[in-house]
TrEMBL record:
It comes from the Eukaryota. The keyword Glycoprotein does not apply. The lineage of its organism: Eukaryota, Metazoa, Chordata, Craniata, Vertebrata. Keywords: Hydrolase, Metal-binding, Zinc. The gene is Haghl. The keyword Hydrolase applies. It comes from Pitta sordida. GO terms for molecular function: hydroxyacylglutathione hydrolase activity; metal ion binding. Residues 80-161 form the Hydroxyacylglutathione hydrolase C-terminal domain. Gene3D superfamilies: Ribonuclease Z/Hydroxyacylglutathione hydrolase-like. PANTHER family: BETA LACTAMASE DOMAIN (PTHR11935), HYDROXYACYLGLUTATHIONE HYDROLASE-LIKE PROTEIN (PTHR11935:SF77). InterPro entries: HAGH_C, RibonucZ/Hydroxyglut_hydro. This is HAGHL protein.
């Protein structure tokens, strides 16, 4: 497809859903890097759940389809879940300094209500465990060596990764401490 000078390649990436698509966009002779709108396939530091597909499909999506794009491609994912993804990446590779740096950066951005998207494919290959399935530390974490089995195990581990604790709302806690809710709770 082409919209003016912008070229669009539609990439069929079934797994999260059976009809999932990603969109790769670029302009010929442009100094700007191309863009990938990866939806629920590739996230900053993670990948989508396998709702309607398999680990084999996601492996193909990440390695042969998206992973084959130019490394300077900017990745615009469908959800902002970078901090949680990178917490999991740190669990997978606790010695990976790039994961530590990216997580610290993402936390600062999150604290300032700033986006962590986009990243680049080149960056993702340095800290995203779902793109690092052939790396020894990732394989050690999963106990597997076959890349598809590593990916399957990672996704299962990520699905069961503990959710962050809900932080109590400080004003609400103070209101309870001061007894401001007592009239509504039937306490005297």
């Amino acid at each position: 497809l082409q919209f003016g000078a912008i070229r669009v390649r539609c990439l069929f990436t079934p797994c999260h859903t059976s009809g999932h698509m990603c969109y790769f966009m670029w302009e010929d002779d442009s100094p700007d890097a191309p863009a990938l709108f990866s939806g629920d396939t590739l996230f900053v530091g993670g990948c989508g759940q396998f709702f309607e597909g398999t680990a084999e499909q996601m492996h193909t999506n990440l390695t042969q389809i998206l992973g084959a794009l130019p490394k300077d491609t900017k990745v615009f994912c469908g959800h902002e879940c970078t901090v949680r993804n990178l917490k999991f990446a740190l669990k997978v590779e606790p010695e990976n300094e790039i994961v530590k740096e990216k997580l610290a950066w993402a936390r600062r951005r999150d604290d300032e209500d700033l986006p962590t998207v986009p990243s680049t494919l080149q960056e993702e290959f340095l800290y995203n465990p779902f793109l690092r399935v052939t790396e020894e530390p990732v394989q050690r974490f999963t106990g597997k060596t076959d890349p598809v089995e590593v990916l399957r195990t990672l996704r299962t581990q990520r699905d069961n990764f503990k959710k962050p604790k809900e932080r109590p709302n400080p004003p609400a806690v103070l209101a309870f401490d001061w007894g401001l809710f007592s009239p509504f709770l039937g306490k005297k």
